[in-house]
């Protein structure tokens, strides 16, 4: 067996292990929590639902209406953010890049804060405003990047930082104008990210755009490998780097905007998971992208389980991802050349 075959077999093994870990962690999350349930009871309830013989009960309500949609959203958001991070790191040739680099998170955060201020917290308006302003922020980033004659990936990243800072300032203005008793706490909590109050409706809202974005990214995995080698090499191999980079960024933005719209701002996932997977699987996006997706789903399920069980009051998940992400960021920065490449 040659080296390439060994790497392929190793990648398949790791992905299989990750799939098993995802199934176990998802089932584990269904019976763990402040209202503990026996694993056998959960399995019995799920079997009853599948056979149509289940009867209404408090246990069924907890498992099916509260925990099950939450776990589904954990998987969708974790996989989506990790896939977006993998794509961004490939096309920008930098391991320290994350999905919110183009201002999506702050743009969506401003939209949600504005909806909370104006509409009084309607879930439909908050989700719609967050998703819409997330897309607007990316449009502004591209518009600003076009003013740079070089039109390089670095110009796009710097434009994203500028737009992100602008929307960050707008968020501060919204906070200043918000009622300190009701609206301001809601805005602050939303910006820290949380899966609290997840319903099947939120799952449906996130699932469609995330699935569409993931389908686009998976179909362009081999092009990501070309783009990661630089524009000159991509042109030599018959790839239009600008057009393909635009498509990948658009797909990643749709994924990130949809995730932020339903859960609030959850940082670091798109940066840390691809880097962790890269340590065990090659940088080939044909295997790295699916591995990162599954690992992101496992990570989000476990972190959300920790967020809702470690204390009596639920911890915003953005705090926990930042605690985990900071040392990983430092490790990647120290291991690399200092620029994340």
Main beta sheet: strand number and arrangement? none
* Radius of gyration over all CA atoms, rounded: 21 Å
CATH class: Mainly Alpha
Total strand count, please? 0
Supply the helix-strand structural class.
mainly alpha
Count of discrete alpha- or pi-helical segments spanning 4 or more residues: 14
Q: How far is the N terminus from the C terminus?
A: 31 Å
Q: What oligomeric state is this?
A: single chain
Topology order in helix (H) and strand (E) letters = HHHHHHHHHHHHHH
The CATH topology comes to ABC transporter involved in vitamin B12 uptake, BtuC
Q: Provide the helix percentage.
A: over 70%
Q: Total domains, how many? A: 1
Coarse shape: globular
The CATH homology group name: ABC transporter involved in vitamin B12 uptake, BtuC
Average pLDDT, rounded to a whole number, is 87
Low-confidence stretches: none
Q: What is this structure, in a nutshell?
A:
With 341 residues, the chain is mainly α.
Would you write up a description of this structure?
With 341 residues, the protein is mainly alpha-helical. The protein has one domain: ABC transporter involved in vitamin B12 uptake, BtuC, CATH 1.10.3470.10. Helix content is 77%, strand content 0%. The chain contains 14 helices and no strands. It is globular and about 65 Å long. The protein starts with a helix and ends in a 6-residue tail after the last helix.
């Amino acid at each position: 067996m040659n080296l390439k075959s060994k790497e392929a077999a190793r990648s398949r093994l790791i992905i299989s292990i990750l799939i098993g870990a995802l199934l176990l962690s998802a089932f584990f999350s269904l019976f763990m929590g402040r209202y503990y349930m026996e694993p056998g009871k959960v399995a019995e309830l799920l079997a009853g639902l599948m056979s149509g013989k289940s009867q209404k009960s408090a246990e069924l309500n907890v498992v099916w209406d509260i925990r099950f949609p939450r776990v589904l959203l954990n998987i969708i958001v974790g996989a989506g953010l990790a896939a977006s991070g993998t794509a961004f790191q490939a096309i920008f040739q930098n391991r320290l890049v994350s999905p919110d680099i183009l201002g999506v998170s702050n743009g969506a955060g401003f939209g949600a804060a504005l909806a909370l201020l104006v509409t009084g917290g309607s879930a439909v308006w908050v989700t719609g405003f967050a998703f819409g302003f997330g897309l607007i922020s990316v449009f502004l980033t591209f518009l600003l990047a076009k003013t740079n004659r070089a039109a390089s990936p670095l110009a796009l990243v710097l434009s994203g930082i500028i737009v992100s800072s602008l929307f960050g300032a707008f968020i501060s203005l919204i906070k200043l104008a918000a009622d300190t008793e009701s609206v301001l706490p809601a805005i602050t909590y939303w910006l820290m990210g949380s899966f609290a109050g997840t319903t099947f409706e939120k799952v449906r809202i996130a699932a469609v755009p995330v699935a569409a974005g993931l389908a686009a990214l998976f179909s362009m995995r081999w092009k990501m490998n070309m783009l990661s080698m630089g524009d000159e090499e991509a042109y030599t191999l018959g790839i239009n780097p600008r057009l393909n980079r635009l498509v990948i960024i658009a797909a990643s933005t749709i994924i990130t905007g949809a995730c932020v719209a339903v859960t609030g701002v959850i940082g670091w996932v798109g940066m840390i998971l691809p880097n962790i997977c890269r340590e065990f699987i090659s940088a080939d996006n044909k295997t790295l992208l699916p591995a990162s997706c599954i690992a992101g789903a496992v990570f989000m399920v476990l972190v959300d389980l920790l967020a809702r069980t470690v204390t009596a009051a639920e911890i915003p998940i953005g705090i926990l991802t930042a605690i985990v992400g900071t040392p990983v960021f430092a490790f990647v920065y120290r291991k690399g050349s200092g620029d994340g490449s």
